[in-house]
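<goal> How does this chain fold?
<body> The protein record starts here
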Amino acid sequence: MLTQLPVLGSFRGYRAAWLRPDFTAGLAVAAVAIPSAIAYPAIAGLPAEVGIYSSILPLIGYALFGPSKKLMVGPDAATMTVLAAVLATMPLATSADRVVAASALAMTVGVFCIIAGLLRLGVIAAFLSRPILVGFISGVSISIIIGQIQRLTGVRIEADGLFRPMWELIQKAALIHWPSVALGFTLIAFLLLLTRWRSPVPAPLVVVAVAIAASALFDFKGMGIAVVGDLPRVFPSLSLPIDASLPIRELLLGAAAVWLVSFGSGIVGARSFGARGKFEVDANAELVGLGAANVASGLFSGFPVTISDSRTAVNLSVGGRSQMSGLVAALTLTAMLLYLQDAIRVLPIPALGAILVAAAMSLLDVAGLREIWRVSRMEFVFALIGMAGPISVGVLNGVVIAVAATLLYVLLKEMRPRDALLGRAPGRKGFYKLHRSRNAVPIPGLALCLVQGNLLFFNVDYVRARLLEVAKTLPANTRWFVLDASALAQVDSTAAMMLNELRVDLAEQGLQLGIAQLHHEPMEVLSRAGTIENIGDTMVFEDLEEAVAAFRHRSSQKHEVTMYQRELASNGNSIARARTSASERRV
């Protein structure tokens, strides 16, 4: 199975002409990565340098094992928020403990990704439906914004949720550091303006540069505005993030939550970029690439990462042709870590809060929610459920709510399968739904009923009641009730028992049950349950055409038998009359 791991797959067919665009794209990716690399660790209470580590090594890991030439990996606001919630469940006394725990989670997420990729479990990427994912990410964005109150005001906030942190801020209004507030909201406005003006230089990078220059010029630290401070001037060393004090249960469950959200949101973004850039995205191969990126991050004191929207967008816009741009970005960030410490040291904390607020606002998909409302009110309700989870009960519990909402959504869709009676349309081949096609007419004596959905334990009672209701509306001369099973992909033992009972119920109404177009797996289940034997092989058909032909043939045979019986009866009566006449003559 390990032979399935791709190595340098993104460099296959590399051309010398790609070096220049890759080098330019790599510099641009590094430039846009700097603000998020420094800001995002604050969401999970991690040191700023950990964000830089998590922006360097994952790029190398993905370049070696990732399948895509153009996707970029890195820190993600939603993933960081889930990570923060997971870390909050662990007994971590110091900042160093948090770093070890985050690295252990990255390693575990990476192992989950690789195993899932090798087992071809990329389909799990679709487990969170788009409405619930849009709602969940929007809820996460609101949580991120609320989480920046402390960085923007200088007031320590301990409450969670949506309204309690605001109430706590009101109670501590006397502690608000107004210069920090003024700086933070000024930079938020500046970010929004740059975004609206479509600045050729990434807006977060401009804000970081302006904030550093202003901090050095006006001595923000002397004014009481918090700054990043000194960062280690060393590259992280290779080490296994093993700590016996880490709770295994919380580690595994937390890694599963991080993995589900990071891969779910990451693959959605990857596919949207793939559609825009006209390249294929293989979810299973991406799992292996993301696994390598997360393992590399965990081995070098980093935290979990996923496909980065901002970095991928920059890479595509500048014209990156391969993962060489990712390697260039990694080298650039390494040089920054080693040689640009003096500039980063005076970066004001409110600037990081402003960058995170702007990033969170970009995650708040109002247009997507509006579209979901327009398309389906029910799906909009589930989007609101997904949004409410992270806000009301925390991001980690919000993941559980999002998954539960997805299961509930699937169950509601499957609990009441649609059905339709079918008939012929004069001059046209095939069969058509009677309620949709005006020209379609039923076949006299034969009812063809299509059930559009699986027959499983939680919906068989509804389906049975519905089919009996349909049977009561059929004309009096109807003799066969044939179930079109072309849409039945799954049938369980409860459904097999229900079909046996349905056969008896229909027989009491003078109807014979038949099944047409039954798939292989449902056929095996029904055969083992004895349902096929009870219905009879002669009433199981390959398709509807065979069912119609069999019905007409047997109806014709029955008609001939009836005529023959009538003829015999007529002949018998004639003979009886002749015998009576002869007897009378003898008398």
